[in-house]
């Protein structure tokens, strides 16, 4: 059967209607532990241009209910959502709570993807990273184009942008999303449904 013709206006209307019903409105913040808050500030504010918009010093730990001393910061994205970070004054306590003790994490274990406006912005970030001699990996997902890098805390950050094929691929995938999941859960060897990219995506370029 031929692929149904993609119509941008119809797809946009369908997405808007689905999203309007959703009371979970947007990401407010994502939080991670910082090894060094000033190094973290330099990375997010100076390198990625995400302004530091709030810094709280907390003297009670709400998890233990005991007196404590930690800092909590918020770095803002263009939609008002934030990447947030904590750092405890007690270095051992800080390291004990950290995921992999701030070792650079595998992207399958955890990563946070933040969207930039367009490919021009993505290329601008790439230039900045090159100038700063900061390591990264480029990846073409088919439906997104991304730069992967680790922040100073070992957290993997994905800078991503939509590409001309994004909506077409998402529209095609959307109607079958649940049935594909069910099939993958039930069967051991399911072929890829991502025909644009072949067997799977690979990093296309890396700056070590
Ligand atoms: Fe991702």
UniProtKB/TrEMBL annotation:
Pfam families the record matches: Glyoxalase
UniProt name for this protein: VOC domain-containing protein
Domain of life per record: Bacteria
Organism in which the protein naturally occurs: Iodidimonas nitroreducens
Gene3D superfamilies registered for this protein in UniProt: 2,3-Dihydroxybiphenyl 1,2-Dioxygenase, domain 1
Range of residues in the leader sequence: none
Domain (VOC): residue spans on this chain: 26-162
């Amino acid at each position: 059967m031929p692929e149904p013709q993609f119509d941008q206006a119809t797809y946009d209307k369908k997405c808007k209607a689905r999203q309007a019903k959703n009371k979970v409105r947007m990401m407010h913040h994502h939080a991670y532990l910082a090894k060094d808050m000033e190094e973290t500030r330099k990375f997010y504010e100076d390198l990625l241009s995400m302004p530091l918009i709030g810094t709280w010093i907390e003297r009670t730990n709400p998890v233990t209910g005991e007196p404590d001393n930690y800092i909590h910061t918020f770095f803002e994205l263009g939609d008002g959502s934030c990447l947030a970070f904590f750092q405890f004054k007690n270095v051992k306590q800080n390291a004990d709570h950290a995921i992999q003790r701030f070792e650079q994490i595998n992207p399958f274990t955890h990563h946070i993807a933040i969207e930039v406006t367009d490919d021009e912005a993505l290329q601008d970030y790439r230039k900045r990273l090159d100038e700063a001699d900061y390591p990264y990996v480029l990846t073409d997902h088919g439906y997104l184009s991304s730069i992967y890098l680790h922040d100073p805390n070992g957290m993997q950050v994905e800078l991503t942008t939509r590409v001309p094929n994004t909506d077409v691929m998402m529209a095609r995938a959307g109607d079958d999303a649940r049935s594909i999941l069910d099939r993958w859960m039930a069967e051991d060897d399911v072929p890829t449904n991502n025909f644009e990219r072949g067997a799977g995506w690979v990093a296309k370029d890396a700056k070590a």
